[in-house]
Structure formats: C-alpha cells, structure tokens
Amino acid sequence: MSRNRFSKAKKYIDVSVGESLQIIRELQEMSQNDLAEKTGIPQSTISAIEKGRVNLGIERAKVFARALHIHPAVLVFPGWDVEKEAAVS
Known about the structure:
Blueprint: H1 17-27, H2 32-39, H3 43-50, H4 58-68, H5 72-76, H6 82-85
C-alpha cells in the first residue's frame, strides 16, 4: 500500500484537559460514579476536573489512565502538536 494514499487527520476542535477526560470516560460508557469507584477519586473531584475548576495533576492523570487503559499523556496534553512543539535544532 502506498503511503501517499493517506493524508494526515485534521484537527477540528481544541479540547481542554477536563474535556479530554470526559470524552474518554464517555467513550468507554462510564459515568463519573463508575470512574470514581475504579479510581478512588471522589465523583465531585472528577466533575470539577471535567469542568476545569480543579487541575488534573500528574498523579491523578496516572490513576485515571490506569482506570481508562490509556497513556497519561492523552489526558495531560490533549492538544499537543508534535510539529509545532518540535525542538529547535
């Protein structure tokens, strides 16, 4: 298969850390209460993170990542653009 038959996916919207958590949680058909039970993080804290009122933090990201079976970077850096953020040589 030729590589030129594929094009890079386009980014249509920016999502916050909290929105990323909510989207992934909902895609896995989990409620905030389900996630709270799996992580030990209170539902009220999950709600506050999803609404952007509380920072996610690295340690919580790791806990959520384990429960959601994803890499923590998916939550911590939802809008990361490798080409824009590439190190300058």
